[in-house]
Each structure stands twice: as structure tokens, then as C-alpha cells.
Amino acid sequence: MGKWRYGVILDAGSSGTRVHIYRWLNSDLARDKADDSSLHSLPRIETKKNWTKKIHPGISTFGDNPHDVGPDHLEDLFKHALETIPSKEIQNTPLFLLATAGMRILPPLKQKAVLQQVCDYAKKTTDFQLPDCDLHIQVIPGETEGLYGWIAANYLLGGFDKPKEHDHGKGHHTYGFLDMGGASAQIAFAPNATEAEKHANDLTLLRLRTLDGVAAEYKVFVTTWLGFGVNQARQRYVKALVASSPDTKELPDPCLPSGLKVTTDGKSIEPGSDAEKGKAPHLVGTGKFSECMRQAYPLLEKDKPCLDTPCLINGQHVPAIDFDVNHFVGVSEYWHTTHEIFELAHKDKAYDFKTYQQRVNEFCSQSWEEIQKGVEKKKWGKKVDETTALEVCFKASWLINMLHDGIGVPRVGIEKMNGGYNGTKAVLDAAKEKGFLDPFQAVNKIDDVEVSWTLGKMVLYASSEVPAASPEALAVGFGSNEPGLPKDFQLPGGTYLPYTASDDDDWHDNLFSENPRRIPGFLIFIVILFVVGFLLCGRERRKQMRHKVRRVFGGSNAPLKRRRGFAGKLFNLGSSTPSYERVLEDGTSHNSFELGSAESYSDNEHSDSSDTSQHLGRTSGWATPQINAGLVDPSTPTYFDNNILSQGQGLGLSPTTVFGSNAMERGGLMARTESRERLAGLGRRSRASSPSRGRSPKMGWLKEEGD
User: Fold this and answer.
1) Domain check: are 263 and 114 in the same one?
2) What is the pLDDT of residue 437?
3) Mean pLDDT, rounded, for 411-421
4) Residues 364 and 261 occupy one common structural domain
5) Which has the closest alpha carbon to 261: 425, 390, 413?
6) Which of 462, 483, 512 is the last residue of a domain?
């Protein structure tokens, strides 16, 4: 068991599945390294940006063909996880696939078939820890998704670990959580003491455990509104438009920019279609945002009877929210709709109703032609395409209705807070600097970490691996707000895993185990450093190194086999006898002779190619001396004695051209070889400018650092 614990969660949503990979220190090691403050904190979860991967579409599309979900959907996600996590930790790594809204709409039998295939495929193709498929692979209800999101938000904001720094008054130090997708919306918050006592039976008991083994309990209200996601709300809106004018084929839509015509499902009207001919209903944009707001309001269904007061929307019970102490963060559609267009130049700014509505009005009052030109010029950023621009006016109206008329968030910029706090600036200061004290703030990331409910699930799991401080301590998990362990109490699945020093990852584990693909790159880097060091150490040192290498490989008197590869050239290990080379050179290079071995390198010598023949017979062009007959003993045999005339003819050169007195002036090519020892004995030295070549080659995103 290594010092790092890993976890894999697949978020199986309606539009696609995303794999999230997290890691944390073994609880024993984390406790040993923790200071007093950290001991009272939850385990520190780490992740990286490239540890996530998403593919489309969602697994719910495999309802009719469940056997295809493995090879056609999960294979790439599993491969990504297996390549990221050290191979020796795979068997110790829990795998979860938790499906949300997309799978909830499938019939139970189809749900079961898809989940069974997921389990079978995971067990057949991976060694991930998967002891109980019913626990690890399931469709989770919206309430569970909201609770996990609440854990993630408070974990990142510091509401759990630093309660004194997040004291909102009345003994309250946690944040509320809002999530909105395409099909549903969730809310989760801890009511104030008065409301918590009054509505105790409506709360969920959550139990975590800090590194010192002490339990931390929270009582949270969580609910979900099915059909209140932006896409479902839009469908209900269009359905109401058609029902209000059943005989009208051209329906005015104030939530669309003026001049835009689309079908009732938001598609372009095709030439020759029934919609173009006026035989089918279609929508015509009028660009009146205030009217759009008014027509979207009834979708809140606030007129439904409330059987258990108080209620917010759809007749569903929600304890009264004290916005003096309950400060909400909104993710997913709350972020995209407030920031993708309208807050592009105001990242991390707090939500201000007055300013936001002004910006929405300005955008939605433009004609569709003007908006198209802005999209083409990337006026609102690279991510904003025509589809986003088409949908955003309705989404903005729905978000405003949900926040202020539905949930009751005060309109910052217009309404005063009960406790005297207000934010009447046109654009408020950075939300981070304000400590998220506004009643609502849309977020995507906190300290560069995405606020995802999958993180909340992993925090809960890692917390369950911490050993309890006492034998009487109750288990980590969540369930009904009852003493002890209620019948519906859900365990996260983690157990205490002891750590021994012998299992510690040493330096080579940290270097190689996390990703096997690092090994070739590291070795190449070492080779490059060695080559650079060899080239820079000087001629005398290189000579000494060659002698040492010869002694290591059999002694100075032992003959070595001729080596023509890169290493042989580098150390001059080709032979124990004087080395001779034949070089063709421009005749003007008589002052460019480099005494001693001359190495030449190219990019190919550092490539991945294993073909060493590419490197044979290479010499530097400036290593060839000018012919000087006076330097050579006539009795010394030279390469010219070996039919040099025929070689010159082979080059198209006559004997006169080769040996004529004006050969060098005419820039002809000369060829010769010379014993290095004889040249060295003449006392020549290489020029000072002789060229040489060298080559050198609380939670944040996990930084690249040593483990």
C-alpha cells in the first residue's frame, strides 16, 4: 500500500460521462505530517486538470443496447484512468460510476441492464476496487447529488476546516449550494438554529471525520426540483405558448432576439418545411426581455398547494432561509448564464441583480443580425456561438425568476438585507475578497478547482478511511436526522487502511510510477545532459575519460571490437590502432583543422529512431586539413597510393585537376587521409574559435512537485 490513495468517479450525466481522478495521503501518514491545525481538518484531496476526461453522449443512450456501453463508451474513460494512476495502486483504487438526471428518466429495467453491463465490463477489463456494484455503480437521486455538491462547496471555501474565519453570525459558518442542470435544480443548506429545530425531521444528518479521528456532524436540508432545469423549463414555456394560441402558426416569442425565426424545438427553419409554408407552428423573436420575464414567471408554479409550510416553488417544502447567515454559491447553469456572456469582462465578480438585468436587457434588445455579427467577431468570447446566443435570453429570465421570485434571494443592488448589508454598487468587488458574503454568488472554480459534486463524494470517502478516535465513534456517512445509525444511513464505502514505513514510495516511485510514459523522456533527458557535459569538459578531460572507459571495458591492451555507432564515435572506441578517416572537403578550409577527435551531431541522433545506420560515417566539415606535401614523409603510405586517380576520375576529375598547382585556387575538391598521431606530432593546435555544439535539452490543482 503506497502513501497515496487514489479514487475514480465517473459522473454519468444526461449529455455525457466525465471521469474524475483524485488522490490523498494515507490517513496514518497524513496524521503524522499534520500540524495542530491540520489535525482538525478533513483529508486534503488533490487533483490535476488533465486527470479529467469527458465523452459524449450519456450512458442513458445505451438503454436499448446495454452491451455496447463498455466498448463504445467506457473504454476510453477506463484507459485514461489506468494510464494516470500508478499501476501498483490500481487494485487499491475504488471505482464509482454515479448516474444522474439522464439515467433517472429511463425505465427501471433499462436502468438495471445498463448498470449491470457497466459493472461486468469494469470487472472484466480493469482491476479497480469494486467490491459492491450496488454501492459503487448506481443512479443517485437529486438529493444525494445536492448533498455531495454542498460538501464540495464548503470543503473548498473553508466552511468545514476554518469555522472561525467563516463566521456568518448566529453560530453559522457553512455556505448554501445551488445547482441547475438541464432537467433539474437542487438546493442544499444548513438552516439556522431556529429553523433546524423546527424542521428537524426534514433534515439530512451528515457525519464526516477529521484527521484526528473526531466526528463532525452537520444537519443539512436538501431538495431537488424535477423539471426545473433550464431545458425542461424551456420546453414547458414553448408548450404553454402553443397552447395559448392553438390556431396560430407564427408565435411571437419575447425570449428570442428580434428577427429570429425557429421551430418550436429551437431549430432553424428549413426551406420547404411545413414551418416555412405556415403549416406548422414556429417561433418569431420579438426581443422584449421584460415580457420574457413576465411570461416565464408562471413556470415556477408557486400557486401549487403547499402541504407542509413553508414552500418556495412547485408546492415543495423548504425551511425558511435566513440570508443574513445563509450565503449561497451557484454552479453549472447559474455560472454559465451569468458569466458566459454578461460577465465576460468581470470574472470573479459578485452577482448584482441590478447590473445583471441591465446587461441582459442590453443584449436581448439587439436584433438577431447584430448578435450574429458579434458572435462572428468573438465579442463575447470564443465559447459563445449562435446556439448559446439564441438560448441565453430565456435562460437569463429563468435564472432571475428562480433566484429571486422562487428561492427568494434578495435583489442585491436594489433591496436591502435584513441585517443591514447591501451591495448597491454597479459592479461589486471581487467575490473572493468579499469572502462570499453576498446572498448569492455564481462560481465555477474555487482556488482553480472546479466545484463538482464528485469532489464532495470523494471527500466523504476519504473521511471514512480515517480511524475513529474512540471505539464508540459512529460511522461516516449520511441518512435521516436520527440519533445513532438510522436504517437508511448510507456508508461511503471506505475503510481504515494502516500504513507502514516499508510501503513508502521512494524517489523512483515518485518519478516513474505515477505515469509510466515519463520513463523514456527522463532517460533521454539524462543522455542529453551527459552529452552536453562531455562536450563542455574540454579536450584533455575527454581524452582522460576515453582512457578510463577503455580500462573499464577490458584494459588498455585488450583489443576492442570496432564500434561504428554513436557511442563508438563519441568515445573513439573504434580501434586500438590509429584512426584514419577519408573526408571530402572544400579546398579553402586549410585553417579549419581541429586536432583530436571531431564529433558531429544532428537532430536525428536524439530522435526515437533505433536505426543506428543513420549516424555512421559522419564527420565535421571543418575537420579536413589542406594538402601540404611538405608535411608528409614520402615513405609514408597514404590513401593516394590506393588508386586515387581512379577515384578522381569517378568524381569527374582528371589527374591534372587533382594534382595541378592551381587546384586549390579553382576551388576543386581534394581528398586525403592522415594519421592523427603524425599530425599531432607536428605541434598544430586547433583554432580558438573552433565551433562546438551543445544541447540541453485549500485544495488547489496538484502542482508538479516531488512526492
Assistant:
1) no
2) 65
3) 51
4) yes
5) 390
6) 512
The predicted pLDDT at position 549 comes to 67
Query: What pLDDT shows up at residue 532?
Result: 79
> Which domain does 124 fall in, by range?
4-226+451-512
Segment of 183-187, 342-346, 670-674 carrying the highest mean pLDDT? 183-187
Decide which of 317 and 431 is more confident: 317
- Would residue 548 count as lying in a domain? yes
DSSP letters, 217-263, are: EEEEEEEEEET-SHHHHHHHHHHHHHHH-TT-SEEEETTS-BT-EEE
Which residues are annotated as part of the binding site for ATP? 182-186
Instruction: Indicate if 612 and 507 belong to the same structural domain.
Output: no
Q: Which pLDDT score is estimated for 634? A: 43
Do 397 and 507 lie in one domain? The reply is: no
Q: Is the pTM of this model over 0.90?
A: no
Euclidean distance between CA atoms 642 and 633, whole angstroms: 16
Q: State the binding site.
A: 182-186
Same domain flag for 506 and 531: no
> What pLDDT is stored for residue 639 in this prediction?
36
| Four-residue CA torsion sign, 26, 28, 32, 36 | positive
Is pLDDT of 358 > 70? yes
| Catalytic residue list | 145
Q: In angstroms, how far is CA 315 from the centroid of its own chain?
A: 40
What is the DSSP annotation of 679-697?
HHHTT----TT--------
Using DSSP bridges, classify how beta strands 137-139 and 95-99 pair: parallel, antiparallel or unpaired: parallel
| Cβ-based burial of 374 (10 A; exposed 0-12, middle 13-18, buried ≥19) | middle
Bridge partners of 332? 180
Would you say 69 and 59 are in contact if contact means Cβ atoms under 8 Å apart? yes
Radius of gyration of the chain (CA): 37
Quick one: average pLDDT of 525-554?
A: 74
Selected residue with higher pLDDT from 647 and 414? 414
CA-nearest of 501, 500, 493 to 465 is 493
